[in-house]
Amino acid sequence: MSPDQPTAERSLDPERLKAYGKLVFGAMGGAVTAAMIHLGDRLGLFRALWKDGPATSVELAERTGLDERWLREWLRQQGAAGVLEWDADERFGLSPEAVVTLADEDHAAFGAGLFSQLPQTMAVLERLPEAFRTGIGLSYDAFGPEGARGQERGFAPWYRNLLVPFAIPRLAGVKERLEAGAEVADVGCGGGVALLELARAFPASRFHGYDISVHALERAERNKTEAGLGNLHFHHAEEEELPADERFDLVLTFDCLHDMTRPQAIMRAIRKAIRPDGVWLIADVKAHPTYAENVERNPMSPLMYGFSVLTCMSSALSEPGGAGLGTLGFHEDLAREMAREAGFGRFERLEFPHPVNAFYEVRV
Ligand SMILES: C[S@@+](CC[C@H](N)C(=O)[O-])C[C@H]1O[C@@H](n2cnc3c(N)ncnc32)[C@H](O)[C@@H]1O
Questions:
Q1: CA–CA separation, 310 vs 304, rounded Å?
Q2: What is the C-alpha to C-alpha distance for residues 299 and 305, in angstroms, rounded to an integer?
Q3: pLDDT tens-digit map of 34-79
Q4: What percent of the chain has pLDDT over 70?
């Protein structure tokens, strides 16, 4: 509905008031259900309901050692919200769709990781009013170590399931180069899961991750040590810039350009770091050039604009003069134009399956 008339001249419609209340308090319901999903993930409740089957609160208490009364209320909330299935005996369980979304961390559709940093994400609400006054946002480190773990768990399922078997073979010549021994950089690498997958699959190649988040880099180092990989190195991007000697055969930027304060400068640095015959794979949020298109064509746009204020745009404005693109700010036309400005002549959108991201193959 457009605000075509001043509010004072518009009469209050009781039916519309009811519908509007439903919309606003439904949003609160969504937030509370998300908080309960966070608890279910954190306490291992979805896994318990998956591995050992549907349960009453008494049975779930026996399985988990948690307090029955608290579990009963949690189960009832998740049942009422439709997250869990339930029967007349108040036995609660997971549908096959719920299993892959909330319990099976190895599945490509696993999404509970996105909920693990909910407390840290919401905690910045205390600091954001100041950002509205000053214009300066918060970098990813504002969410602490748990924030970095949440980012990693949110993005990892795609990397683990699809990067090596699906995405790499679709980039002409890249698999062969990685098998023979190539130099690879992941800029904005987070906890390094994408590089870990590649480093394991292509032992003849060398991999370098760059990020500015201390917490993400700590996780990346830990992940590397646990995996026992020697062909993988992580760098703090502010202390060690990308080398300007055209050495990389493959550069990755996954879900990070829209978060950067200076994405155009990073793209120019990538041009200097990549070989003239190198490949740059961009994954970034599917977005459209106008606000109206984003709202009309993307049912997740309220979530995305909200994430933008809480994390992405905040990060992209975390220093004075930041570009502030935000979650839905790096649409294909802009990406193409910025890549051209950085010195790249070829830009192709790839049809990779992903609920949120678009993929672009960029070459000199
Ligand atoms: C949404 S996370 C994505 C992380 C990782 N690519 C993934 O998919 O899991 C965005 C990352 O970009 C990093 N970042 C932001 N600005 C950066 C910059 N100028 N250079 C390198 N990394 C940056 C953040 O610290 C954060 O780890």
A1: 10
A2: 11
A3: 999 999 999 999 999 999 999 999 999 999 999 999 999 999 999 9
A4: 99
Contact 136, 317 (CB under 8 A): yes
Got the DSSP string for 292-329?
HHHHHH-TTHHHHHHHIIIIIHHHHTSSTT-----TT-
Report the CATH number that the domain containing residue 88 is assigned in CATH: 1.10.10.10
Closest CA to 315 of 238, 245, 262: 262
Distance 237 CA to ligand 1 centre (A): 10
Same domain, 204 and 263: yes
pTM: 0.94
Distance 175 CA to ligand 1 centre (A): 25
Report which ligand 1 atom has the smallest distance to the Cα of 187.
21
**Residue 254: CB within 6 Å of ligand 1?**
yes
Q: Assess if residue 3 is contained within a domain.
A: no
Report how far ligand 1's centroid is from the alpha carbon of 33 (Å): 28
Q: Which of 159, 167, 166 is nearest to 193 (CA)?
A: 159
Q: Using a 6 Å cutoff on CB, does residue 114 contact ligand 1?
A: no
Domain of residue 356 covers: 125-363
Nearest CA to ligand 1 atom 7: 190
